[in-house]
Hints:
single chain; alpha/beta; Rossmann fold; 35% helix; globular
Amino acid sequence: MHRTLGLIGSGMIGTSIARLAISAGFGVVVSNSRGPETLADLVTELGGQARAATPAEAARAADLVVAAIPLVAHRKLPAAALAGKTVLDTANYYPERDGHLTELDTGASTSSALIQRHLADSHVVKAFNTITPHQLLSLARPADATDRSALPIAGDNASAKAEATHLLNRLGYDAVDIGPLTDSWRTEPNTPAYIRPYLGEIPATDVDAFLRWTRQTPGIPVPATQLTELIEAAVRQTAGEAKLPSAD
């Protein structure tokens, strides 16, 4: 059973995962690119089960690691410190933020496969990339809840996906295994399973207003059966611009 969760990235999605992990009884080591001293307020808010560290220190201390960073920053992940670890990748590809990457624009690869290439000695599992930060908190439910939601995972290693499934269950979600990292495009931006099912009709607005709106919206439960249907309905798009704000 996992005892310590490492967070590389302390943005909105990383912070939401940290809060759920603390509530589930995990010890949490949070980190970012700016240094542990910038996380003092967050650690105080999270309480005694949390501490701050550098990304490499968080990677070494953790039984399981969540990389909650923008895709453009993935080469900064500490590959040596993450060797042998299961790494949950929350990143989404936004060309307007990350710059156009030919492998992704043409559909030759997926964002998670790029991260797996960088972390050659780790086991990458795509997770947490289809839900906004507030809804990740508000939709978490106990295992026996009738309105429990599911989140998709993808990965190339069965044991790593089992670890991810166990973590999701502890945090309040069922997991839907969509296959290897080559199939993780089925949950990328602009696919049926991405963000919208957990929110309903999204008002036309800018990114800041959208995020304010999500904080006032409780969210809509998405059970595993519905999520599976949405994933199966996905059609691969290439060379497009992602239109919805990032869940990173």
